[in-house]
Amino acid sequence: MRALGIEGAWVDTPRVFTDDRGRFHEWFKAETFHSSTGQGFGLRQANCSSSVRGTLRGIHYAAVPPGQAKYVTCVSGAVLDVVVDIRTGSPGFGTWEAVRLDDTTHRCLYLSEGLGHAFMALEDNSTVVYLCSQPYAPQREYGINPLDPALAIAWPDHLVPLLSDKDAVAPTLAEAERQGLLPSYEECGAYRSNPASAPV
Description:
Blueprint: E1 2-3, E2 9-12, E3 17-19, E4 22-24, H1 30-37, E5 45-51, E6 56-62, E7 70-76, E8 78-84, E9 96-102, E10 108-111, E11 116-121, E12 126-132, E13 141-143, H2 165-168, H3 173-178, H4 185-193
Antiparallel strand pairs: 1-2, 2-10, 3-4, 5-12, 6-11, 6-13, 7-10, 7-12, 8-9, 8-11
């Protein structure tokens, strides 16, 4: 696994074994994950979404503690997957990094608790699966508008973004900060150091 420029995010490009029957790869291995990130990953929920070309999902995040860490891959088609540093007080606050996930390289992206996550489908029937450290809890779930001009995420300009109603009216990063909706860098670090102290 390779650390990205945003602290708390890693990308993994697994070794793919191919023969005349097809392909095989290991897309998550706890020992490799721990040795690379220094963190554990307790699986509490697994999600799968399929999207038409141009679908833009996110930017989503959960309140910390406990937040929701995600381990994401694309099993069919291709997406541009983006991690956003939304942690107030972070040296990288407001920065983002994009990774192409597809069914050829089988890259995986890991985002620690407190980071924002979004992706755009680059092909029809792009299917994303992700492991989550916490179950979905509507009262702790938030969003930031993925088209926030201050973030200036470089979504593919040849695609018309298709957003849910909820994502289309989500606040900008600055608005979410003013409303006190963002996790802090300090509390995210404290939680990662002692996740057992968080409520279930």
